[in-house]
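A quick aside before the break. I want you to see a complete sequence-to-structure record at least once, exactly as it would be stored in a machine-readable document. Don't worry about memorizing anything.
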Amino acid sequence: MSSAQQRSASERTRLTPIQSAVLMVLTHHRLMTTSQIQRLLRPDAAHPHYLRKALSRLRAVGLADRVFRPRGEDSVWFATPAGAELAHAHGGVPERPYRMDAARARGPLQRHSLAVVDTGLAFLDHARRQGLSLSPLSWTPEVAHRYRSGRSFRNSNLITDAVLDYVHVEADTRWDTSFFLEIDRGTMPLHRLVQKLDQYRRYADYAPGRHPRGRRVLIGDLSIRPAWERRYRWFPRVLIVLANPQASRMMRTRQHSLQRMTPRWSYRGNTDTVLQAGVVLLSDLQEHGPAADIVVPLHYDSDGERTSIVFRSSGG
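That is the input. The structure line, written in tokens, reads:
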């Protein structure tokens, strides 16, 4: 390695705390606008000059880059492969094979990725107003869940837009809650959203090695348990977030259309897993917070009646 390369590598590892924090969230969330980064890391700062300086520094040493958006909107930032490698080496975020680049950052999934961040920020902003504990890394984008057996990844896994862990405190009681977040900007046909809900229903019951008819297969003295229990304390709620503020009336209609299309599933499956699902507008989530009565339920109870998502978890 030449002396110039050695200096460049050394500069990359000498980051200030704010530069390190920015690199971590860019690596974790993949795509973020300048204003989203500010809301995530320094919401009370009156001026974003320090943040712009940190971003410029990361770009100068090849750890981050940006793409511009039309009509003077915020630039969109992402960690370069070198930046992601450094973030993973520091152990602040889990290592994942996906890498962002300028072509992907400009691509058709840009607004969807930014809407995922906006959804997480709606939870984070509410938590801060209530004095609750939530971190900039409390939600993880694009998490794969196997819901059926098969060799094909595409046909046996569902990709959750984000998994979010939330903490609610009421009357001195702490409730830990998790959500499977599905973000829809009105571009996906409604029947595809219903199909994805069915995949979550199947994931709630899926247990590798289970008899095809649903009976449990015993191995020794242990009954095969659902796959989700290896990752979660309880089955997260499925929350579809309609995120298109420019078409709020259409989103409201879409919310209730989706409820009418939901099959009459009982929320308890073969494994007694409790599946709760609902749909909410991002604008309602941002204005009222996740604890408000704003979620339209999509599942039925065992008596065939609609039952709302209870904000609290089954554990405490």
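Two observations worth writing down. The first strand starts at residue 32 and ends at 33. The radius of gyration is 21 Å. We'll return to this after the break.
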